[in-house]
Amino acid sequence: EIVLTQSPGTLSLSPGEGATLSCRASQSVSSNYLAWYQQKPGQAPRLLIYGASTRATGIPDRFSGSGSGTDFSLTISRLEPEDFAVYYCQQYGSSPPNTFGQGTRLEIK
Amino acid sequence: EVQILESGGGLVQPGGSLRLSCAASGFSFSSQAMSWVRQAPGKGLEWVSGINPPGDHTNYADSVKGRFTMSRDNSKNTLYLQMQSLRAEDTALYYCAKVRDYGDWRFYFDSWGQGTLVTVSS
């Protein structure tokens, strides 16, 4: 089973700043099959990125994904107030199961 | 517009059973693989199970294998999760999700319902 470790656990930033969230896999993720999700309090997760770098439909271009192999990143170029949430990465390169990282909480500083 | 609505959650005693339902619309349900994902209170996401479009193949996380059964009724655009021998650690918000399937049960989750809460407690 591939274990995904996200860092940092919590990131405190101000609106307008840039954010970089990390997701490290315990072994290489096949075909860079790595997705990112955003979850706000009381809401379901929302798909942001799939295939490590492809934005899902309707996702603003301030969100970008990068990386390959075992190291992946989600970058938010200019934080908007609505971006403060918990972010999860998920690998779907090997199965079962489709494993998630433990999450990074992005909070307002 | 894709719409996914879960129902059937509630309070159940350890060892008990519960059946969750998931009504879907806005896409070709019978052509889509589907999945359940759960989230324990204050915790992260855990994939639970998946089902192929015809409903004749399913797959489960080790944590629920042998206790949970996933099925679907394509004539009703509805997904089910029959849960038996429930344990306290099954307490979670259960999400139904539409997936993009890459074969061999590898998928990401592109649309989610709002979830239904299952609480296992005496």
What does this molecule look like?
- The complex is a heterodimer of chains A (109) and B (122).
- Chain A has 109 residues and is mainly beta.
- Helices cover 0% and strands 47% of the residues of chain A.
- Chain A has a six-stranded mixed sheet with strand order 2-10-9-4-5-6, with no helix packed on it. A four-stranded antiparallel sheet of chain A has the order 1-3-8-7, with no helix packed on it.
- Chain A starts with a strand and ends with a strand.
- With 122 residues, chain B is an all-beta fold.
- Chain B is built from no helices and eleven strands.
- In chain B, strands 2, 4, 5, 6, 9, 10 and 11 form a seven-stranded mixed sheet that branches.
- In chain B, a hairpin with a 5-residue loop joins strand 9 and strand 10.
- The mean pLDDT of chain B is 97.
- Chain A binds chain B through residues 33, 35, 37, 43-47, 50, 56, 88, 90, 92-103, and chain B through 44-47, 59-62, 95, 100, 102, 104-115.
Task: Name the descriptors.
heterodimer, A: 109 residues, mainly beta, six-stranded mixed sheet, four-stranded antiparallel sheet, 0% helix, B: 122 residues, seven-stranded mixed sheet, 11 strands, 53% strand
Distance between the termini of chain A: 36 Å
How far do the termini of chain B sit from each other? 40 Å
Oligomer designation: heterodimer
Radius of gyration of chain B: 13 Å
Morphology call of chain A? globular
Strands of the widest sheet of chain A, in order across it, are 2-10-9-4-5-6
Give the DSSP E fraction of chain B (strand runs of 2 or more residues).
over 45%
Give the % helix of chain B.
under 10%
> What value does the average pLDDT of chain A take?
96
- The coarse silhouette of chain B is globular
What structural class do you assign from the helix and strand content of chain B? mainly beta
Helix percentage range of chain A: under 10%
Order of helices and strands of chain B: EEEEEEEEEEE
The tally of helices of chain B reads: 0
Number of β-strand runs of chain A: 10
Question: Which segments of chain A are poorly predicted (pLDDT under 50) over 5 or more consecutive residues?
Answer: none
Mean pLDDT of chain B: 97
